[in-house]
Amino acid sequence: MNSCEFVTFISGLACSIAKDKTPEEINLLSTFFTQLGDTLATITAFNDKNC
To answer: What is the mean pLDDT of residues 10-32?
Structure first.
């Protein structure tokens, strides 16, 4: 999978997740996935620095 295909996949996934959700639910999901991504990045940075 190349980068453009990956972006297309992510966009399609986001549309599927958002389907039939309220704006409030979409906002909460967005916040959740942002926090998840930030936490994973923090864990990776910590492990790279301390291993």
So the answer is: 98
